[in-house]
Write a structure and sequence with these properties.
By secondary structure, the protein is α/β, with parallel strands linked by helices. Helices cover 51% and strands 11% of the residues.
């Protein structure tokens, strides 16, 4: 009997020891899991903090760089009376396409900016005073490296071409719109209808002859085009593509329009960009050294 009692007591002791060992193993494992979890959480938190700091520094650098670039462009592209702008004899050998968009900003401006970005292409936007709600796109285009030029504020021929005073009054208005968005009044302009338009003669005989000279003494330079996409005449996507393509010139300045009704222009743009890209052309925004395309003045 005594031996049985001793055996049972020994079994109980062994069971208690085993239970204790199991408890300590479980507790130890749980402690390790919690500790590892806390360590991993600390590592993740530290990594997140580091990433946030890096992102903040990157944003600061980007903002500083953008401010420097904008400052340089302001110094170079601002209207300054008496300054010669551009050249009629561009460099030989270079192949450049100047994509120009009149009449914006509009709901299509953002779409155009996004398409241009995919091709790493720069363009020029000749803005008006229309669509006030879309004006932030002017700043977005400028910050993306595109050139901002002036078209007119009202784009009403009968008002704009009534007199020199009326024209410059309108130009001052759209210049203020640009200044609000990009911080300066650009020196690049485009006449409604181009310098060769004859509609202006209905309102003032000889006004284009006088304006084409006067704007340059006032610190502006005007730009016409040597390729017309036809979108202003209501052409569809395929026609716009066909009209916009040429391999006969090394300095191509294409007329497009940026307005709510020009969805076909947006649709045609990728094919046009690819066409010139495949031919080895570079897409540039107009600057103070760019090729100046002038039509023959007819009024």
């Amino acid at each position: 009997m005594r031996i049985e009692r001793e055996n049972r007591r020994q079994l109980n002791i062994n069971g208690m020891i085993l239970c204790a060992l199991v408890f300590f193993v479980i507790a130890g494992t749980a402690f390790c899991i919690v500790a590892n979890s806390r360590e991993k959480t600390a590592e993740v938190t530290a990594a997140e903090r580091l990433a946030a700091q890096e992102n903040k520094r990157a944003e600061m650098v980007k903002g500083f760089t953008q401010d420097v670039i904008n400052g340089q462009r302001k110094d170079t592209f601002s209207r300054r009376p008496g300054r010669k702008i551009g050249t009629s004899e561009p460099k030989k050998g270079e192949k450049v396409v100047y994509l120009t968009f009149d009449d914006g900003p509009s709901e299509n401006t953002k779409k155009i900016i996004d398409i241009l970005a995919k091709f790493n292409a720069k363009a020029t936007f000749f803005i008006t005073g229309s669509n006030e709600e879309c004006r932030p796109y002017i700043q977005e285009a400028h910050n993306a490296g595109h050139t901002i030029g002036l078209h007119t504020y009202s784009h009403k021929y009968d008002e704009v071409y009534a007199s020199e005073k009326a024209y410059f009054s309108d130009l001052d208005q759209v210049g203020k719109v640009a200044e609000e968005q990009i911080g300066y009044v650009p020196c690049f302009i485009r006449f409604p209808g181009g310098s060769s338009n004859i509609v202006s003669a209905k309102y003032k005989q000889g006004i284009m002859s006088s304006l084409s000279e006067k704007v340059q003494t006032e610190g502006y330079q005007y730009y016409d085009w040597n390729v017309d996409s036809g979108d202003g005449a209501g052409c569809g996507k395929e026609e716009i593509e066909a009209n916009s393509k040429t391999d006969k010139m090394n300095h191509v300045m294409i007329l497009f329009h940026d307005s709510q009704t020009k969805g076909a222009t947006v649709e045609a743009l990728p094919a046009i960009l690819k066409y010139y890209q495949d031919l080895g052309y570079e897409f540039k925004g107009i600057d103070t050294g760019s090729y100046v395309c002038h039509h023959g003045v007819k009024n």
